[in-house]
């Protein structure tokens, strides 16, 4: 029987690609969206993420959270939304896979490891959203009642990049590809998310990261 998965914020650019990848691999996919379902998912729950109740995720094997915020006025919504969904899944066997950020990945600096977002060259324009993602991860790491996996993209997350079908799986450290770059396309990241859904060895209560080869 195909795994049943739900994708929150499925109408977003990454959400749609995750839905498409999952459907193409034969998973039973439900899009959770605020308005019209614009994905290829055959089922939809039309609801704001903050209005979801404990009944909504019942019956799903995996809930993927592709929720994002991009303005200073809404940055705080991201960790609150992740915490809200985690509360709904607490004490269940439903896995919670979170589309995360790269700013909290670790890099070497003066002989110690610091977050990428704390390095001098980290762009000011991304500090707010990076901090929001970092808070969401920090909150998840306090929880042992949720089967969560936090998935960071590479530092350069390329919306229109090609689907190569290949990527590297890494952990908390910023990892570089064969060109010495930290980069991955949205399409290859979606492959990594669905690989994590279907793997026999899931990364429960871990942060993983994905980078191109």
UniProtKB/TrEMBL annotation:
InterPro entries: NAD(P)-bd_dom, NAD(P)-bd_dom_sf, Polyketide_Oxido-like. Residues 10-194 form the NAD(P)-binding domain. Pfam families: NAD_binding_10. One of its GO terms (molecular function) is oxidoreductase activity, acting on the CH-NH group of donors, NAD or NADP as acceptor. PANTHER family: FLAVIN REDUCTASE (NADPH). This is NADH-flavin reductase.
């Amino acid at each position: 029987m195909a795994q049943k998965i739900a994708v929150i914020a499925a109408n977003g650019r990454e959400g749609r690609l995750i839905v498409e990848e999952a459907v193409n691999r034969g998973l039973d996919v439900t899009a959770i969206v605020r308005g019209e379902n614009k994905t290829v998912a055959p089922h939809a729950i039309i609801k704001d993420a903050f209005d979801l109740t404990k009944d909504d995720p019942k019956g799903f094997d995996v809930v993927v959270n592709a929720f994002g915020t991009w303005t200073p006025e809404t940055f705080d919504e991201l960790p609150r939304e992740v915490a809200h969904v985690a509360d709904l899944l607490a004490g269940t066997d439903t896995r919670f896979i979170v589309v995360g950020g790269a700013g909290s990945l670790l890099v070497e600096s003066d002989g110690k490891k610091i977050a990428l977002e704390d390095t001098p060259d980290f762009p000011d324009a991304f500090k707010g959203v990076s901090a929001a993602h970092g808070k969401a991860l920090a909150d998840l790491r306090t929880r042992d009642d949720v089967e969560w996996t936090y998935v960071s993209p590479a530092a350069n997350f390329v919306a229109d990049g090609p689907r190569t079908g290949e990527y590297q799986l890494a952990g908390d450290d910023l990892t570089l590809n064969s060109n010495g770059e930290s980069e991955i396309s949205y399409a290859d990241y979606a492959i990594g998310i669905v690989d994590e859904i279907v793997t026999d060895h899931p990364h429960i209560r871990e942060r993983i990261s994905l980078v191109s080869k």
